[in-house]
């Protein structure tokens, strides 16, 4: 019986890793007719495809769901669903907000944000790690970056959380999701208008200098979605896997927060994979795949390729993670990689400083069910303060 | 050995400046400067590592 794999399968969401091991071993090129994709899983194949933006086009976007997959994906996803040169033109001004220097300058503010939300959670002792902490910090950091005034952030966080939140066991945002999304759109449009009239030292002001409103709004939504849910899921995975591996948790709490972050990124990356459109007939592992095919590049499988990561299913904070693919690669390499890593480091440092140890209630764990993104929506935890 | 940066692709992630600070530097405007476009042999390994590690593949090396 050959391996069967669908990124929409709930059993796969529970534990995708045995399927990845079989794909890597038995089916390095895997065709799923029903979901209509060809999957690549090996590290060498995934990294080569990510680097080759001419053959593996982003014109239909990176997401498997339809919509947004399709020729109009860029209307919602801006440069994430474009190829060079248009991609470069739109991405460049945004990327100026994410340079190593800009990220370092944000660190003190990120620490204040993390401390604020952590203090609230610790007061309760038992809380949902996701809703109470891991979802809040990244949303506020995106607001800080974009230029949402502090007085508006609670409201923006509330609207964003509602528009992104998914019901347990579904791919759907909740019924109030679209209304919250519309309210957020209205808020952002108003903020753009205010910055056009009176620029400030923030990203919206940088964007208003060169782009029309209709191009700025999707960029803000991309920053919100790409900048919050991913970091939330990284924190959730770090918290969960360290709980599952007490020996590694000891190392993390002994001070190896960077190793904790990198290994969690490798072991269970928030972005499972990215889709691409094949632009020319291509021979892969002895099979000719035709132009126009949808390619699914499985980042989470590449991170478990034993050809690159020895004993890949072992969660080991001390391993060499240099070659992890968690932030994609090539022209679409995550521009928030440094920011996300810094946020995670600050958040986990603050946790380690305040918490002696913790438990997770496994009966309360819930996951989101999307093809591209993997993470917990509920992670009940009880902490023992230091 | 000659190393070049494509300024249209570079996004100042600062990976190369960390791996080979003698060769790469970010200026005050976050533009990457190649301080030693023809780095000496002693730095060759680290420069290759930096070029390979650039997340945007913005560096090219000719040997």
Characterization of this structure:
Chain A is of the alpha+beta class and 386 residues long. In chain A, 50% of the residues lie in helices and 12% in strands. Chain A contains 16 helices and twelve strands. Chain A has helices spanning 10-14, 17-26, 43-51, 73-77, 86-95, 100-124, 129-134, 136-146, 153-164, 177-197, 203-208, 213-244, 246-253, 257-267, 299-302, 337-354; strands spanning 29-32, 37-40, 56-57, 126-128, 273-278, 282-284, 287-289, 294-298, 355-360, 366-367, 376-378, 380-385. A five-stranded mixed β-sheet of chain A has the order 1-2-8-5-3. A three-stranded antiparallel β-sheet of chain A has the order 4-12-9. In chain A, strand 6 (282-284) and strand 7 (287-289) form a beta hairpin. In chain A, helix 6 (100-124) runs antiparallel to helix 8, helix 8 (136-146) crosses helix 9 and helix 14 packs across helix 16 (337-354). The relative contact order of chain A is 0.17. Chain B is globular, with a radius of gyration of 10 Å. Chain B is of the alpha+beta class and 63 residues long. In chain B, a hairpin with a 5-residue loop joins strand 2 and strand 3 (32-34). The longest helix of chain B has 10 residues, at 44-53. In chain B, the strands form two sheets. Chain B has a two-stranded antiparallel ribbon. Chain B has a two-stranded antiparallel sheet with strand order 2-3. Chain B has a single domain (2-62), classed as Alpha-Beta Plaits (2-Layer Sandwich). Chain B: InterPro entries: Fe-S_cluster_ET (IPR051269). Chain B: Its cofactor is [3Fe-4S] cluster. Chain B: Keywords: 3Fe-4S, Electron transport, Iron, Iron-sulfur, Metal-binding, Transport. Chain B: GO terms for molecular function: 3 iron, 4 sulfur cluster binding; metal ion binding. Chain B: This is Ferredoxin.
Number of helices of chain A: 16
Question: Helix and strand string of chain A, N-terminal first?
Answer: HHEEHEHHHEHHHHHHHHEEEEHHEEEE
Report the CATH architecture of chain B. 2-Layer Sandwich
Q: Tell me the β content of chain B.
A: 15-25%
Give the termini separation of chain B: 4 Å
The geometry of chain B reads as globular
Helix tally of chain B equals: 2
Mean pLDDT of chain A: 93
Most residues in contact, chain pair and counts: A-B, 19 and 13 residues
Residues in helices of chain A, as a percent range? 40-55%
Major β-sheet of chain B, in short? 2 strands, antiparallel
User: Using only CA atoms, what is the Rg of chain A?
Assistant: 20 Å
Per CATH, what is the topology of chain A?
Cytochrome p450
Order of strands across the biggest sheet of chain A?
A: 1-2-8-5-3
Q: Which oligomeric form is depicted?
A: heterodimer
Order of helices and strands of chain B: EHEEHE
Question: What gross morphology of chain A would you assign?
Answer: globular
CATH superfamily of chain A: Cytochrome P450
CATH architecture of chain A: Orthogonal Bundle
Family (chain A): Belongs to the cytochrome P450 family.
Keywords (chain A): Heme, Iron, Metal-binding, Monooxygenase, Oxidoreductase
InterPro entries (chain A): Cyt_P450, Cyt_P450_B, Cyt_P450_CS, Cyt_P450_sf
Organism (chain A): Spongiactinospora gelatinilytica
């Amino acid at each position: 019986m050959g391996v069967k794999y669908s990124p929409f399968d709930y059993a796969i969401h529970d534990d995708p890793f045995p399927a990845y091991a079989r794909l890597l071993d038995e089916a390095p090129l895997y065709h799923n007719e029903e979901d209509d994709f060809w999957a690549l899983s090996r590290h060498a194949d995934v990294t080569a495809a990510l680097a080759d933006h001419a053959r593996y086009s982003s014109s239909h976007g990176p997401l498997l769901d339809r919509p947004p997959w399709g020729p109009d994906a860029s209307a919602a996803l801006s440069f994430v669903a474009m190829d060079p040169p248009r991609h470069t033109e739109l991405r460049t001004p945004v990327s100026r907000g994410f340079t190593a220097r800009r990220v370092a300058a944000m660190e003190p503010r990120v620490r204040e944000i993390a401390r604020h939300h952590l203090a609230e959670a610790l007061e309760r002792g038992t809380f949902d790690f996701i809703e109470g902490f891991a979802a809040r910090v990244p949303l506020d950091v995106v607001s800080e970056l974009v230029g949402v005034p502090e007085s508006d952030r609670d409201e923006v966080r509330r609207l964003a959380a509602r528009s992104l939140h998914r019901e347990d066991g579904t791919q759907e945002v909740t019924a109030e999701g679209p209304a919250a999304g519309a309210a957020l759109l209205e808020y952002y449009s108003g903020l753009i208008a205010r910055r056009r009239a009176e620029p400030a030292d923030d990203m919206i002001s940088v964007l208003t200098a060169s782009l029309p409103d209709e191009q700025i709004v999707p960029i803000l939504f991309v920053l919100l979605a790409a900048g919050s849910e991913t970091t939330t899921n990284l924190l959730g995975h770090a918290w969960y896997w360290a709980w599952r591996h007490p020996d590694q948790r000891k190392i993390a709490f002994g001070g190896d927060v960077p190793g904790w972050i990198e290994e969690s990124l490798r072991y269970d990356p928030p972005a499972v994979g990215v889709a691409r459109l094949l632009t020319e007939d291509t021979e892969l592992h002895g099979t000719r795949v035709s132009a126009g095919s949808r390619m699914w590049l499985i980042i989470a499988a590449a991170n478990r390729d034993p050809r690159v990561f020895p004993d890949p299913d072992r969660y080991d904070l001390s391993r060499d993670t240099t070659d992890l693919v968690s932030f994609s690669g090539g022209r679409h390499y995550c521009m928030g990689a440094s920011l996300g890593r810094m946020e995670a480091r600050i958040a986990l440092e603050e946790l380690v400083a305040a918490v002696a140890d913790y438990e997770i209630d496994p009966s309360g764990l819930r996951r989101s069910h999307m093809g591209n993104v993997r993470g917990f929506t509920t992670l009940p935890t009880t902490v023992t303060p230091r | 050995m000659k190393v070049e940066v494509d300024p249209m692709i570079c996004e100042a992630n600062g990976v190369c400046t960390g791996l080979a600070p003698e060769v790469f530097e970010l200026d005050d405007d976050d533009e990457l400067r190649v301080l030693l476009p023809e780095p000496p042999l002693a730095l060759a390994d680290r420069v290759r590592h930096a070029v390979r590690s650039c997340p945007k593949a913005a560096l090219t090396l000719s040997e």
